[in-house]
Amino acid sequence: MNTSDRAGSRDEDPGDTAEGTRGALPRRSFLLAGLAGATAGFTASLPAPAAAADGGSATPGGRSANGWPVTGTGITTLPVPGTPASVALREGDVSMVLVHVIRRFHYEVEEVGPRELAGHRPAAGLTGHTTNYASGTAVAVRPDAYPLGATGVLFPHQEAVVRDIVRECGGVVAWGGRLRRPHAAHFQIDVRPGDPRLRRLADRIRGWTQAPGLGAGVFLLGA
């Protein structure tokens, strides 16, 4: 894939939900029909995945499209709580955020099976947004079900949830469904190393995982 496959601009979305102040009940009890109806009026834009600075391929020692160093170190394979799956990601704040995204996808969009996640991989052959896998800052969720270039793979209510997941992340995460050549399975960190928004979001998620009734798997009233 080359730069012509990617969206040419990014629309900033300041949306950032404050989950700690709302009541809770199981997310799966939420009526999907109501969410599907809300989708028809959904107009908020989301950030498109960042473009590679050089528009080319990933190389060891270089940087991926989102500005992170391509590396084979500092990568950890983590189980995703609530699922039978595990995934290799850059350890620390990056993995904290992307595992949260996967968990919400699993609970609210489609269940994730034991071999349905693709994370870090070697740089060879990766171009465009896929170079982010070589830095450990991207994950593909159910990539066989949502292959690169496929359209209409999510129902409207499912896409509404995906958009909500990205909005909750406040510009830190981008979804590949907005690429010119869509990649609905793809989620990536969309800020550069050292951006304070990543640490703030990771710290929020850490707090949710320690508080009963918060975090992935819980629907929050007022969302």
Automatic annotation (TrEMBL):
Reading the lineage from the top rank, the first entry is Bacteria
Which stretches does the entry tag as region Disordered? 1-25
- This protein is called M15 family peptidase
Which InterPro entries does UniProt cross-reference here? TAT_signal
Specify the species: Streptomyces dubilierae
